[in-house]
Amino acid sequence: MRRCALLLLLLLAACQPLSRSTAEGPAEYAGAYGGNLVWEGTATMAGDVLILEGGSLTIRAGTEVRVTPAEGTQIDPEYYSSLTELLVRGRLVIEGTAERPVRFTIVERPELEEIAWAGVTFDAGAAGTLRHAEIVRAETGVRCIDSSPELVGNQLRRCRYGVISQQGSHPKILDNRIEDGEGGVFVWRGSRPYLKGNLISGHDEEGVFVDADSRPWLDRNTVTGNAIGLALYPRDLPYDETGVSGNTENLRWLGTGAP
Predict the structure, then answer these.
(1) Which residues are 164's β-sheet partners?
(2) What does the pLDDT look like over 81-103, one tens digit per residue?
(3) What contacts 233, CB < 8 A, 6 or more positions away?
(4) What does the radius of gyration of the chain's CA atoms come to, in whole angstroms?
């Protein structure tokens, strides 16, 4: 009986989740996760993080997520980029507030380039909400592939591309600041995002690009200070012209027969 009781205690202890005390420093994450994960305080992405279908990641208000850039070119068909990536196939909820945003910061090293990581990718029906996150120096701040998350009040700065919506995605992109990259919002491959109240400024190329197969809803956005404000294929796309001003070229029609 005594041996049985001891064995039972050992089994119960083995079933308890492991935790890291604050004295040991911030928790580090890399790899695939299928449970319900919560980050708060400080969390370090030591490598690629994949949230599997059926799993979830919640990031509490005020959290700093420290992103460790990849040391070299990664070859992993599971991911979309050779750079460090947060890839979501389950659910991602970022619970930042205006007073306590969630900040993605870069673990610096001397030879690091300006674009330091891949960013956040929602893939194949992934769900979630990003509120008041600050994402900097990503290849793409947020990429939606056949997924429709809600992006509200975020700051996407110094990213190569701010938001990409592709392959049938229809995210809600509301009241964000997308600034100082190469391109702001790219909509292609049959996507239908709703963009309202965003500031899209300071890009070397297009503020908003729309291909011929997509129909976003552009509602009261401010698009200014870009090389091209709107670059559009569809001629019948409604948009609020009053918010598109102060660009080197405010509107460029694309494709055959463009004026």
Answers:
(1) 143, 186
(2) 899 999 999 999 999 999 999 99
(3) 210, 211, 212, 253, 254, 255
(4) 21
Question: pLDDT below 50 — which residues of the chain?
Answer: 1-23
Beta bridge partners of residue 39, listed in sequence order: 59
Q: Give the integer Cα–Cα distance in Å for 51 and 143.
A: 15
Note the pLDDT of residue 22: 39
Which two three-digit tokens encode residue 51?
Answer: 């949230």
Positive or negative: CA dihedral 169, 174, 180, 183: positive
CA distance 95 to 214: 30
pTM above the 0.85 mark?
yes
Residue range 42-253 in CATH 1.10.20: no
Three-state DSSP class for 86?
strand
Residue with tokens 């129909």: 215
Burial (Cβ within 10 Å: 0-12, 13-18, ≥19) of residue 63: buried
**Nearest by Cα to 45 from 97, 99, 104:** 104
Residue 132 is encoded by which pair of tokens? 């008041």
Q: Tokens 């109240």 correspond to what residue?
A: 197
Provide the 3-class DSSP secondary structure of residue 101. coil
With b for 16 or more beta-carbon neighbours within 10 A and e for fewer, the 130-145 pattern comes to bbbbbbbbbbbbbbbb
Strands 150-152, 172-174: parallel, antiparallel or unpaired by DSSP? parallel
DSSP 17: P
SS3 of residue 53 by DSSP: coil
Tokens of 24: 């040991």
Q: What angle do CA 180, 176, 85 make, to 5 degrees?
A: 70
User: Cα–Cα distance between 118 and 190 in angstroms, integer?
Assistant: 23
